[in-house]
Design brief:
The chain is α/β, with parallel strands linked by helices. The chain contains 20 helices and 9 strands. Bound molecules: zinc ion (ZN) (2 copies). Residues 586, 589-590 line the site of one zinc ion. Keywords: Hydrolase, Nucleus.
């Protein structure tokens, strides 16, 4: 796909190096070698005719191999931002066909996800009009194919190219099976393709109303914070509610830092995050298709980091994410305003009565409005030369330096082990002797262990040895007197322990409790050590007794030492970490405590419920989690 180039303007931005530089960078990172090679093929007439008119297909076919550059330029001038090369027909067919092929490979289960490094791009190619370097709409053709031939019911198309994929929007505008989500530079219509229909209030028509989402960028220099805000506030809520069977990305890297067309500032590493958050949808069936991107360095880097993420490598850390800009807040709120009637997930945002706006303080409300600064007049012929921005040398150099610095500072280290795992059956010795059916019982961890064995997960894990937490470690969070109190229970007679345990809430103690609690806490430290030393990427501790209710001087709610809090402390003390996020998704026991205290009679019902849930659902949640980690 390197042959297609402009014969009359050597500086044309849609150039063969776009293709070669991306491939080169992917090879340098050793990524291409890890991919399954899908053989390119030409799109068939049948595939093209689903979305394009016969005359556009024939016209391009007629230019195939033509030696007459003058004639090619004359034809090109009939379209907005188009050049035709003798190889264009062949390669446009190949780009479209290969996109279909990659979608097939994903839907047939041959590959988990895929990336098509193709050109010419596609998202501006309309039904009967070539436009913006595009001839056939690769992504739209593949989407239509998936709907027609592969039993796919819902497709999410995310278009992060800096230009609005107006053609893709048009093709599925009334189709509720395709949720088209585009983020694009707009500047109220002043930016190409200067269309009214690229604004936020174009949300689809007929049955497709609510399934077309435009997030116009009305200012330049939008960065990671802005894009992440769009993802978290709008795209992901809609995507989860939509539940796509397939996700396609119209992946233009002209939204990247350094691109003189886009003038946006997404860093290459941020594309990893944008990609990664889409991988949780549609069972990971995700195809990323190259569209634009004209700063060769950021294009190549962004594309390589995207591919790397598709291959399952961890997302690189991105620098501090600031508050999203006011302009993007307005764009997101505007989109929410018009989409709200169609989506449950958008019902949380507050609304206010416009008639009462005057009584509110300035800045506490937002009223969406539409301004259009584009032109509705469409020319009949278009410039074919010198039609691209001309950034000054100084700006280009500065951006180039910023890019170099970012690339140099971005760590792409991948730990040797994907997942470490710790389990020790000695933690099953801790048990409620007086009430063997107690929910916090040894079977909780032994059954998880059995399930993990059964699913073959353990073969893929890096096994760590459990160890006791040291007294010094426990002292990070627990009082010395309290540690002693628990320590003396070790090996004591059960009758004595029955007395002792009464001083705590929801606690049972047996002669093995102290040792199990030490192992439980120490094992958490083992995992953190393995991850932070760079040995493992993530880890799982199948441990008990649990920890998160344990207070500094009191055992509580089945917990003795606070495993997770101690693990966090370990990261701080031993590895000098500055920021740790603890997510606590435990809910059963928390619920139960509320119910025990408030409605004692429900206690038994919940106990029997937890009997099943503990043994059956917990391993499933775990395996889901493991699936994600793999
Ligand atoms: Zn573009
Ligand atoms: Zn709990």
């Amino acid at each position: 796909m390197v042959e297609h180039q402009c014969l009359w303007d050597p500086n044309y931005p849609e150039c063969p190096e776009r293709f070669t530089r991306v491939l080169e960078r992917c090879r340098e990172y050793g990524l291409v070698q890890r991919c399954v090679d899908i053989q390119p093929r030409k799109a068939t007439s049948e595939e093209l005719l689903k979305l394009h008119t016969p005359d556009r297909i024939e016209l391009l076919k007629g230019t195939d191999g033509s030696p007459d550059a003058e004639a090619l330029e004359a034809i090109s001038s009939g379209y907005d931002a188009i050049y035709i090369h003798p190889s264009t027909n062949e390669l446009a067919l190949l780009a479209a066909g290969s996109t279909v092929e990659i979608v097939d490979a994903i839907l047939d289960g041959k590959v988990q996800n895929g990336m098509a490094i193709v050109r010419p791009p596609g998202h501006h190619a309309m039904k009967s009009e070539y436009c913006g370097y595009c001839f056939f709409n690769n992504v739209a053709i593949a989407a239509q194919h998936a709907l027609d031939n592969k039993g796919v019911e819902r497709i999410l198309i995310v278009d992060w190219d800096v230009h609005h994929g107006q053609a893709t929007q048009q093709m599925f505008y009334d189709d509720p099976r395709v949720l088209y989500f585009s983020v694009h530079r707009y500047e109220h219509g002043a930016f190409w393709p200067n269309l009214r229909e690229s604004d936020f209030h174009y949300i689809g028509s007929g049955a497709g109303k609510g399934f077309n989402v435009n997030v116009p960028l009305n200012k330049t220099k939008m960065g990671n914070a802005d894009y992440l805000a769009i993802w978290h506030q709008l795209l992901l809520p809609l995507a989860y509610e939509f539940r796509p069977d397939l996700v396609l990305v119209s992946s233009g890297f002209d939204s990247a830092l350094g691109d003189e067309k886009g003038e946006m500032e997404i860093t290459p590493a941020c594309y990893s995050h944008l990609t990664s958050s889409l991988m949780g949808l549609a069972q990971g069936k995700l195809a990323v298709i190259l569209e634009g991107g004209y700063c060769l360095k950021s294009l190549a880097e962004g594309a390589a980091l995207t591919l790397r993420t598709l291959l399952g490598d961890p997302c690189p850390i991105i620098s501090k994410v600031d508050e999203p800009s006011l302009s993007i807040q307005q764009s997101v709120l505007s989109a929410i305003y018009v989409l709200r009637p169609f989506w449950e997930c958008l019902q949380f945002q507050g609304r206010f009565d416009v008639s009462k706006v005057g009584s509110k303080k300035e800045g506490t409300y937002f009223v969406p409005s539409v301004t259009f600064e584009g032109s509705d007049v469409k020319p009949t012929t278009f410039a074919t030369r010198n039609c691209y921005p001309d950034q000054n040398r100084e700006t280009i150099n500065l951006l180039d330096q910023r890019l170099d610095k970012l690339i140099k500072e971005t760590s792409l280290a991948v730990p040797k082990h994907r997942l470490c795992f710790v389990y020790d059956e000695r933690m099953a010795s801790h048990r409620n002797v007086n009430e063997p059916g107690h929910p916090e019982r040894p079977a909780r961890i032994t059954s998880i262990y059995q399930k993990l064995l059964e699913y073959g997960v353990l073969d893929r894990c890096y096994r760590l040895d459990a160890r006791d937490a040291t007294r010094e470690e426990l002292l990070w969070l627990h009082k010395a007197d309290y540690i002693d109190e628990i320590a003396v229970t070790a090996g004591k007679k059960q009758s004595t322990l029955n007395q002792l345990e009464r001083q705590y809430g929801s606690i049972f103690i047996c002669p093995d409790t102290y040792n199990a609690a030490l192992l439980s806490a120490g094992s958490s430290h083992q995992i953190v050590e393995s991850i932070l030393s760079g040995e493992s990427r993530s880890g799982i501790g199948v441990i008990r007794p649990p920890g998160h209710h344990a207070e500094c001087d009191e055992a509580y709610g089945f917990c003795f030492f606070n495993n997770t809090a101690l693990a966090a402390k370990y990261a701080i003390e031993i590895h000098q970490l500055e920021r740790i996020l603890i997510i606590d998704w435990d809910v059963l026991l928390t619920m139960k405590f509320t119910i025990i205290t408030r409605y004692t009679s429900w206690y038994n019902v919940l106990l029997s419920l937890t009997d099943d849930i503990m043994c059956d659902i917990v391993p499933r949640i775990l395996s889901l989690y493991l699936g994600k980690l793999y």
